[in-house]
Amino acid sequence: MTQRNRSGEAKPSGAGSTEIDLALFGALGDLAQRKLFPALFHLEREGLLDPATRLLGLARQDYDLEGFRKQVEKALKTYVKAEELEREALARFLARLDFIQLDFTKPDGYTAIREWRQQGVLRPMVVYLSVAAKIYGDICRHLEASGSLDEQSRVVVEKPIGHDLDSSAEINDAIGAVFPESRIYRIDHYLGKETVQNLIALRFANPLFGTQWNQNHISHVEITVAEKVGIEGRWGYFDEAGQLRDMVQNHLLQLVCLIAMDPPANLDADAIRDEKVKVLKALKPFTDDMLGRDVVRGQYMAGTTDGHGVPGYLEEEGANTDSQTETFVAMKTGVANWRWAGVPFYLRTGKRMPEKLSQIIIHFRQQPHYIFDPDQRGLASNKLVIRLQPEEGIALEVLTKDSGLDKGMRLRRGPLHLDFNSAFPKTRIPDAYERLLLEVMKGQQYLFVRRDEVEHAWQWCDNLIAAWADRDEPPRRYPAGSWGPVASIAMITQDGRSWYEDY
Ligand code: BG6
User: Fold this and answer.
1) Do 327 and 311 form a contact (C-beta atoms < 8 A)?
2) Annotated catalytic, 251?
3) Which helix (H) or strand (E) holds 243?
4) Is 363 assigned a ligand-binding role in the annotation?
């Protein structure tokens, strides 16, 4: 692959190089300020940005370049730890920034992007759309019509891609009319998290797990993604979406895919994504009779977080007081194939839980014949605990003999623990966006979601949403600061199991 400068000189580039022009739409928005600029800054600090890479901020607001740089600096001071905000790196980073004010929906003004690209060497351009999905199509069209793109340009889009299968197809069609699939990067930031990546290493590099990872050895799988925060001033967006669309359709289903997929032939993007799609296609659909038993929808009421009173969902700013949108969902589902037949996957996610906690627990089956104290029988199985946040780590719970002369052959359960922060103390765990941005710059797609993944995930969710609509039942209330409606505990105890809460 080659790049050209304006006088036609060839310049080598391609996968692996981070020498690009990045055009960030929505550069003054919350995501850009809170996550994207800090992530780009960390890449700068670690020497991972090519010296020639340029960053163009695009926003509707009327800023000049100096005002824009000041605003980015302010965001970095807020969201990057003071000891990491090194002066030289900061100066280098701010000097890369350019700014263009633009009304994204109107074609006028896009030629300024083409002109910006033409200053100096033509590099591949990454277009990052941190804006509402309904204008993705307009932006792509105007970029193309203005001659701002070439055959190497890539586009990055954020979730939510649509509200259901039909709306997501419409958005994907609009992007696809300009960019081929091989140059579309759909973000699910969970795929950039260190431990999520580690799932691939853990499963496919360790023969120990390779042979055990199926229904012969695993009794059930549990995934909890709990957030302490409420909806953080996003009532308008959230009330349209709800927890199923906001968290399950993307993040939790991606975790299910990485746990349940068959080994890919290699680490190529399509080899991995082909296997994930097979899992999504095999997800069990919900039938009406399963709804009352295997799915719980909840909505938080006023309660207490960290000792402070917090309002209920219906009392949040801008709330519509009779909303029935769910802020919590728990469900029992499964993957209908040979590897996973009969293995329940219990998923649970909610806002205003007692703590921020994302973890996956693989529960292994008990020994076929048990020889220890009968009253300890319930202890006797292994669990693999994969903690995504707050402290990333992996623990394998094993049984050993309790020590002491008076203990006989009493068993004790304890973790073989790999806490990343203490095992690798000098390694800073990068934020998901750092890794994702770096992969886009290098042109590597394996951490991004392919169109058919999004669509199969929507299909499965749409089926559940339609079944809920038929039932027309209000969500169950739970106090903020609790683990959700008690019905979610009943859902799992009906199978003689409980949610795993101590790590
Ligand atoms: C986003 C959701 O995708 O993920 C938010 O829209 C949610 O509602 C967030 O708070 C959670 O991400 P993380 O990385 O904090 O678990």
Assistant:
1) no
2) yes
3) helix 235-243
4) no
